[in-house]
Predict the 3D structure of the following.
Amino acid sequence: MVNEKLVELAEFTVEELLKAGNDEGQVFITESEVVEIAYKNGEYNTCSTAFQNDINVIVMKDHKKGAHFLNKANKEAALEAVKTATEAMEAAEVDEANKIAPNQGLIEKTMGVLEPDLDKLFERMEELRATVEKEYPLISVGNIDATYSKRDMVYKNTSGTLCKEQAGSYYVGMQFAGKDGEKITSLNSCGVSTYTLDKPIIDCSDFRLALEQMEKQLDAVALEGKFTGTVMMNTGAVDQFVNYLKGVGTSGAYVLDGTSVWLDKIGEQVTSEKLSVRLDPHDERIVRGETLTFDGFKSEAYDVIENGVLKNYMIDYYISEKTGYKKALNLGNDMIIKAGDVSYQDMIKNIKKGILIDGFSGGYPAVNGDFSGVVKNGFLIEDGKISNAITETMISGNLFEMFKNIKDVSKELVCEGWGVTPYMSFDGVVISGK
């Protein structure tokens, strides 16, 4: 149950911001606890617990807005936050789109693990280390971080909304490289958030695939030449590129300034019908999810793209009021990408010439979708088979065109706790070696 002192503090803060002469306002108050166990340089060297409280106040008067955030939460902090936010409001410009969300009623939600089993967390962590050492002899583990985190959150606004949320979960992440004598690869990482410690961490997410491919990177060779071919992406790269697509195509900044290529295209086909992207904080595969948006609305699931058709923009209440477009129903963090009908191995068999990539390092795509960058942990694919691990490789193309040219989407889905993602392949990408 949420700490009722936080509820009392939220009620006090709302009373004080009205006393300060504001028309309306809201307050977020959180109380967090994080327990961390760390393995680094061949030994367990950290076991610590950290606590943090914070308060975030927004006030409005005559459509002018002020805000202030503090890393502490008590009555003195509340008064300071209200005072500073009010001063900021008084100096702000009038904007008719500045509004506090209407009454959402009482929202109460409890998620996950509220009483951690730290002994079991350590056991799973040590099991992961020992399994990698035994089964992947060419992998050097840099560090393993295991955490249990718990948060109480209270939100209250002048419209009458009161939200009380309590959530707790585990996270285990590992950083590693391939190493064989003098040969060593670049670093890679893998992690998972979870409510349960019922199965080995190495069997969660795509730990095993990442480790297997990293060992093969020890024999990587420089890719020669330049060609237009197929790029197959592991789930980390798929996440990265779908987030680029969401960002450039649907996010608030691009919609507000009118530069989005997808402006006024709601209901139109914008990508291959093989792409469906849903943002669902309540999906059972999502760990902790989301109860309330930052602007005070109860979080709900919605589709961004369904079978290639643009369904919604990712814009908040303010930008919705500025533009007239429908506001997003959540913060956009819990992404579920629909599975396809082709197996991972068959995706590879379907590629005449191309590459498999685990990651991408490059600048954010341009407004028109153009991108270029370096492949991380890549493999050459020829005649339906993976051949050499490759280095010194770049890919370039246009984001919007690439997602119109989806070749395959895998049946397999990887669930890390913060998203659900298939593997994907794309035709028509420029691939450049040295």
Notes: The mean pLDDT is 96.
